[in-house]
Design brief:
By secondary structure, the chain is mainly alpha-helical. It contains 18 helices and six strands. This is Endolytic murein transglycosylase.
């Protein structure tokens, strides 16, 4: 057949080659093997017969039977070529699809395990750190407690020796504590400083002291408030009494030193010196700097106490000591003053009035409340102390004509606190203003013979008290 139709032979070869090429490469060795030769030939014959039928069908094409054969042949060819490939592709696809899914699931599980492991580690670390901090905090807290407790006790309860201590003029509580610690009188200067603050202990005096390590902080504080024997080498001691004004302080300085009163008064009027002091003590003098109509800006701010004077000391040095002392005392009250919506100038002004209007602590606290009641009602304070200061005189009685003096310090004709302090008040009077005794009084009068103070809520009651205890 191949001789008669060489073109068919060529076509058959093409079909065979196509079939052979579609087979997997693994089948090629089998066809070349001598063992399986017969089997391959039989297979090739079957394929050849199929191919012949297909070729014949294509050439004869017109009959029904041929068309059927052609369809069968075509179907057989398609099934032979495509069916195995399709099955193989599906299996491989399933395997390929399953592999990433399984791999992703395994990785996710591994990540979860790693996260859980990390969480456990972090939790353990946090627990250890917290426990460590608690232990350290407890140890530190206990150590601080023991240190403070021991510092509040005498340094050596059994000691019988005494130690000479010099407290310089103008020393603050903190500086005094440091000196006592250096001289081995107390254990801690810092604890001493806080002890004095918490107990509102002020008014410590400069001078020479003899302390013992067996003394408590309370005993040491009382001695410091009482004053020492004077600093060794001091040329003089200046004692400023409570309730004196700048004019009187000038007399004291001129009497006990070689400094002239006029020089002192000039310094009190020196605005440059005041500004220098304000920069040094802003909490104390800021409100005084804003005041208008004052005679002396530093009136009320030269604290009544005893000061050491040296021939080498300048006038500015002496005044600075007095201002520093006032600041040391007032530092315990700055926060309270802010809470009461007042300023230092107002507190010192009322305290300077209370200082002279009352004698006992009880009366001073009542009088302070009377002044607050009158200010709240818009009434003038009507204090005779303000008239005497306005007049610039010191006398026992104030007459009606004196009440008309033209001065911003006249609190009969002017309402409010007035320009500023009238004298240097004591700490007791300052405390009375900051902690007055509540009452509903608007008037008070003192018996000129006994000094006892009587209070009234109405003007009629007050007039009756004046008639009884003053005019008789």
């Amino acid at each position: 057949m191949s001789k008669q139709h060489p073109e068919e032979e060529s076509f058959k070869d093409k079909i065979l080659n196509s079939l052979n090429n579609s087979d997997e490469e693994a089948s090629k060795p089998k066809r070349s093997s001598n063992q399986d030769g017969q089997q391959n030939k039989s297979s090739q014959r079957e394929r050849l017969n199929v191919s012949k039928e297909s070729v014949g069908t294509r050439r004869s094409g017109g009959t029904k039977g041929t068309n059927t054969a052609s369809k069968k042949g075509t179907t057989t060819k398609k099934e032979t070529k495509k069916t195995p490939v399709k099955k193989k592709n599906v299996k491989e696809k399933i395997k390929d699809d399953n592999k990433p899914a399984l791999s992703a699931s395994a990785e996710e599980l591994q990540r979860r395990k790693m996260r859980q492991k990390e969480d456990r580690i972090v939790s353990k670390i946090v627990t250890v750190v917290v426990l460590a901090l608690l232990v350290i905090g407890s140890i530190l807290g206990f150590s601080v407690y023991r240190y403070v407790s021991s510092s509040l006790q005498p340094l050596d309860p059994d000691s019988k020796k005494t130690i000479a201590v010099e407290i310089p003029s103008g020393s603050s509580n903190k500086q005094i504590g440091e000196i006592l610690q250096e001289d081995k009188v107390i254990k801690s200067g810092m604890v001493f400083n806080y002890y004095t603050k918490f107990n509102n202990l002020t008014g410590f005096q400069a001078g020479s002291y003899h302390f013992s390590p067996s003394m408590s902080l309370e005993d040491i504080s009382k001695n410091l408030q009482g004053g020492g024997a004077g600093t060794a080498g001091a040329d003089a001691k200046l004692t400023i009494p409570e309730g004196v004004d700048i004019d009187k302080i000038g007399d004291i300085i001129a009497k006990d030193t070689k400094i002239k009163k006029s020089d002192f008064i000039d310094l009190m009027k020196d605005e440059d010196f005041f500004k220098k002091m304000e920069e040094k003590y802003p909490d104390l003098l800021a409100s005084a700097a804003k005041a208008s109509g004052v005679r002396y800006r530093l009136e009320g701010y030269l604290f009544p106490a005893t000061y050491d004077y040296y021939k080498t000391s300048s006038l500015e040095d002496i005044v600075t000591q007095m201002i520093d002392k006032t600041n040391s005392v007032m530092s315990a009250y700055y926060e309270t003053i802010k809470q009461k919506n007042m300023d230092v100038q107002e507190v010192m002004t009322l305290a300077s009035l209370v200082e002279k209007e009352g004698v006992t602590e009880t009366d001073r606290k009542k009088i302070a409340q009377v002044f607050f009641n009158r200010i709240a009602s818009g009434m003038p304070l009507q204090s005779d102390i303000s008239i005497l200061y306005a007049l610039g005189e010191h006398k026992e009685k104030v007459y009606n004509k004196d009440l008309q003096v033209d001065s911003p310090y006249n609190l009969y004709t002017n309402t409010g606190y007035g320009p500023g302090p009238f004298d240097s008040p004591s700490e007791q009077s300052i405390k009375a203003v900051l902690d007055p005794t509540p009452n509903n009084y608007y008037y008070f009068v003192a018996d000129i013979k006994t000094g006892k103070v009587y209070y009234a809520e109405t003007y009629e009651e007050h007039l009756a008290l004046v008639e009884k205890y003053v005019n008789n």
